[in-house]
Amino acid sequence: MSKTIEQKYRRLTDTEHVLLRPGRYIGSIEPHTATTWLVGEDKKMYRREITWNPGLLKLFDEVISNSVDHSKRPEGKNLDTIKVEVNRETGEISVFDNGGIPVELHTEYNEYVPELIFGYLRSGSNFDDTEDSTGTGQNGEGASLTNIFSTSFTVETSDGKKSFKHTWTNNMNDKSKAKIWDGGKGFTRITFVPDYAHLKTTLDDDNYAKIVKRVYDVAGCNPKLKVFLNGERIVIKSFKDYIALYTEKFEFDDNGDWQIGVAASDDGFSHVSFVNTTETVEGGTHLYYIWYQIATKLREYIQKKHKIDVKQTEIQSHMQVFINARIVRPRYNSQTKEYMITEVKEYKTSWDVSDKFIKRIIEHGIVDRVLLWAEAKAKAEELKRLRELNKNIDKGVNFNRIDKFSDAMEDNDRHLCELYLTEGDSARKSIQEARGKNPYVGSFALRGKPLNVMDVDMFKILGGKSKGNESDGNSEIQNILKITGLKIGVEVKSVKDLRFGKIVFLSDQDLDGFHVSSLLINFFAYFWPELFELGVIYRMNTPLVIADVKGKEVEFMTDEAYEEWAKTAPNHKASRFKGLGKFKTARFKKIIENRANYLMKITKIEDTDKDRITLAFKGNRADDRKDWLNGVNYFSSFE
């Protein structure tokens, strides 16, 4: 059935259009679910997922923002108190301030000023663009929108000479006769009941929580105002104290017009930003203006200090920024004011990041997070390239042709086998002779000190192309991969994925020997940190001193332990075994047979251990190593 001309074409009043198209004026009135900052029971800010009505929150914001704006005008200089009352049972909301509105008759419109500014769209005092206003209003629609979306809306005010009261009902379509009388102390109170039915919502816990959060925002951005909620004052002495509701650790700067807080973030970039008390949830030019300055300075520092080039956006992702900005006549992309579009040159205020502030941010730890991220990114890219070479490593493996490798003799339960990585071939031969018929023991002799994988092109080491050149790679690293079954860039899910369920470092009991073990830890921890959790990595702690007391042997792993014991045992003979080469096969046989007493398992690599390993082996950390203590124990995780 076709529509008539009258049905197809309509002319709406302002009020009808607002009610029909709420998204244009107050944002969505559909339930919105998201994780957002809310005030907890301890009056701190916490992120929690809730479902609220953005339009309802906007209606409240329009009213309370009027009070804040008036406190910044010359005629509102005495306004220092805002009181919010929310009746959860009736749904009524009231906002009081101790600043009055002129109760005067507007001769042009023949209506009193309070009736004019609250009873009509596009009315008010926000249309003088020559005035350097730092308020939130700009279109003259604010509180009148709240009136339209309310079943009842009452204005009470006094300018100190006259008092005024007026009530609108039925979405601003009906109104009572204004009451005017002489006298009264300056104040304004707006009391309204939102049209919850039209908004398709109620004043439930989540909507109320968003209103509470907004009242705290007002208090935090305007510490000179005494702000109350349901009779209780919200005491926030400064914007710095407001930031402290979110995080305890942050850096702060304040030049009067701009108050900036910066904290480290582990969950990507986030911000809490305000322009003239309006929360800019989506950000805007002011947010870019701040974080880009900071990120640019940090980038310069990282380039100079650490020789790493990272983008500003990559630094940004490790920051949490708090902004309370005063900007003259800000402009937004919509009436909901979630994103500010004013160009920087039009702010009429400014903030420049200082070297002192950057230094504090660096000390705060953001740069450390960026460096760790950059290292992880580089490693991930490297692993991706290296995975391509795994198939070449495994191709045509003949274990009998791997030099200085003696395989375990067990073929079925390979995960029960033990691989001894020895410092030198003599130790390997002794292990093989000492194992006898034990089918679970294998060994591979290292040639000198293992490769420091943090400072080499592993793609080249594994036989790939590096800078256009072919390479045979590092045969020792390739052989370890073949022997163990490990694959670069492939996580080990189970010990059963390996050819050896235990990988044991066997090195001399001196500084060089510990260095060998440390380099091996560096190698396995760099590519397969999960091996430590799986209980695969061990170090064999061989005796450094063996004492003979009347034919009975006593073993000591350190000189200190032996010297303390020797004080009580004067009649003994002692032999020192600094190098593995001094052990005869019979001694190794005894050690292998009782190896549970000599094996130390590295259960896991702690974060502090990772930091130490990086500090020890990363080439660009030379300056930092100068201040590092000698002999840091890499084996802090040994059982």
Helix-strand layout with pairing:
Elements: H1 5-8, H2 14-20, H3 23-26, E1 32-39, E2 45-52, H4 54-71, E3 81-86, E4 93-97, E5 105-106, E6 111-112, H5 113-119, H6 142-148, E7 150-158, E8 162-169, E9 174-175, E10 179-182, E11 187-194, H7 196-199, H8 205-221, E12 226-229, E13 232-234, H9 239-243, E14 251-254, E15 258-264, E16 270-275, E17 278-279, E18 283-284, H10 285-306, H11 312-316, E19 319-325, E20 339-340, H12 355-364, H13 366-394, E21 405-406, E22 418-423, H14 425-435, E23 441-446, H15 458-461, H16 475-484, E24 502-506, H17 511-527, H18 530-533, E25 537-540, E26 545-549, E27 552-556, H19 559-566, E28 573-576, H20 585-593, E29 599-601, H21 607-617, H22 622-625
Parallel strand pairs: 3-12, 16-19, 18-20, 22-23, 22-24, 24-25
Antiparallel strand pairs: 1-2, 3-4, 4-11, 5-6, 7-8, 7-11, 8-9, 8-10, 12-13, 14-15, 15-19, 16-17, 21-23, 25-29, 26-27, 26-28
Helix pairs in contact: 4-6, 4-8, 14-20, 17-21
